[in-house]
Amino acid sequence: MTFSEYTLENTPINARPQCPKCAALMYLARITPDKPGFDLRTFECPRCQHVETAVVKFEQAAAKNEDTPAKWAVIKEWDAWVSKHGEEARIGDGMFFFAYLQRECPDLLDFKYPGDKWQAVHGWLLREGRVRPLGENESIH
């Protein structure tokens, strides 16, 4: 897939678009919140160090089912996790936590969601005030 074809609808979070300069596969370097309903994804090329960004819209199906057992199980796990990893929790707006869920608690990610489950978890953490929106410097939970 070329970088210009990258959209959330046709691409999973771990997809690696081609660099438009050298055609190497790019890495997803970071995801940061953008305006509501959108994320800013930054890709870096390991060969030529070219950087590309893409603003992607995501389904907010999780917002429609705000009080699901899955959401509250994830929030409860966040609260326990952040008490052990305070400084780590402040980096990456929950990305370390999501990686922890994938590695240590995959059963908590066994919920129905039409898109990228990172988007659901990140949205829950944002709406419950556990992580900060982009640009806010206050401490979190």
Key phrases:
alpha+beta, three-stranded antiparallel beta sheet, disordered C terminus, elongated, N-terminal domain of TfIIb, 32% helix
Itemize the secondary structure elements and their pairings:
Elements: E1 27-33, E2 38-44, E3 51-57, H1 61-64, H2 69-84, H3 86-89, H4 95-104, H5 117-127
Antiparallel strand pairs: 1-2, 2-3
What does this structure look like?
The chain is built from five helices and three strands; from the N terminus they run E-E-E-H-H-H-H-H. It is α+β, with helices and mostly antiparallel strands. It has two domains: 3-57, Single Sheet (N-terminal domain of TfIIb); 62-127, no CATH class. It has a three-stranded antiparallel β-sheet, with no helix packed on it. The N and C termini lie far apart (39 Å).
Total beta-strand segments: 3
Into which percentage range does the β-strand content fall?
5-15%
What is the CA-based Rg, rounded? 16 Å
- The sequence of SSEs as H and E is EEEHHHHH
Low-confidence stretches: 60-65, 135-141
Looking at how many chains there are and whether they match, the oligomeric state comes to single chain
Amino- and carboxy-terminal Cα gap = 39 Å
Count of helical stretches: 5
Order of strands in the sheet with the most strands?
A: 1-2-3
Helix content: 25-40%
Shape field: elongated
Q: What's the number of domains?
A: 2
Mean pLDDT: 76
Q: How would you sum up the major sheet?
A: 3 strands, antiparallel
**Structural class label:** alpha+beta
